[in-house]
Amino acid sequence: MKPTAWVLMLIGGGAVAAEINPMPPKPGLSGNLGAGVTYFSVESNFIPGNRLVDLENESIGDLNRAPGSESTLSPSFQLDLRYTLANGRSQWFFGNALQDLVRLDLTQQIGFRHKVEGWGTPSVSYVFSSVPTEVYQDPFELNVARNKTDRDSSGFRLGWDNIAGSPVGVTYTWREVEVEQERSGAQLRALGDLTAEEQARLRRDGTQQRLEVLALLDLAPGHRLAPELYYVNRDIDGEANAGDSYGVQLTYSRRFPASTLVLSGAYGVRDYDAANPIYERRADADEYGLAGTYILHNVLNFKQWDLLLGTAWYESDSDIDFYDTGVFAATATVLYRFQ
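RE: above sequence
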């Protein structure tokens, strides 16, 4: 999974989304709109930002060094619109889930879900990148300003909440990932350090599948625990970028009369199918994340207006120092709830 997406989904977490967006008690428009600002501190040799964020780390001088830190402020936008039909069990939805607020790789979805008595709520949606992540055409290019390009993704998502009336839900997402101008390893090949076959192992185009299993457990009134397991398969054209990821996330939420507190922690393992030809070893990594979110409801007695304050930290410790990644993010967002 992309590092910024992996950790920053912690802000908000699955438990918050489940509490804010149940099937509403009456038909019509529901969901929320929001805007705010996010602070990023990012350590990455691969991601310069997106259309809204510029991390200014275009030039590098050593392929054996971990990345330096770059900081920036970015506007953040929230859009989660839902329309419940008159039967009270069917709903169209569009936008990005609340936990996606501060992603550099913003994913939108448009879909439909229907509650089946005794079976739960299945859903289907189309997912796409509304603001593509920017990556470097050749991230291994030395001593020059590296050119940027877009990484787009699109696909579909299948979900099933409250399976057979249980607190367990499952989500499966399939996406096709495309780097518009893929030139990974081009400079090293021109210098004779890589063969054409070795350069091909660095390609980043391909498909990704993600499976999530989440349980929402009510411990006591106002207290909810949400353990989650996930598995990701990266079927990438370049063998050095293909592989699997798997991990666990634990989210605790506490609902107060006028606010909600959410705390999350996650651990994951990222494996690769083949050695990177530049380093002659795999970039396998351990990934860690912590996050906290506080939502103040009905701010200053304005009904249906909420204030979300969140922070998250993520670290990926790779067997190749060049691949190490670190992210710290803090966000403040004002939300308007339609119901």
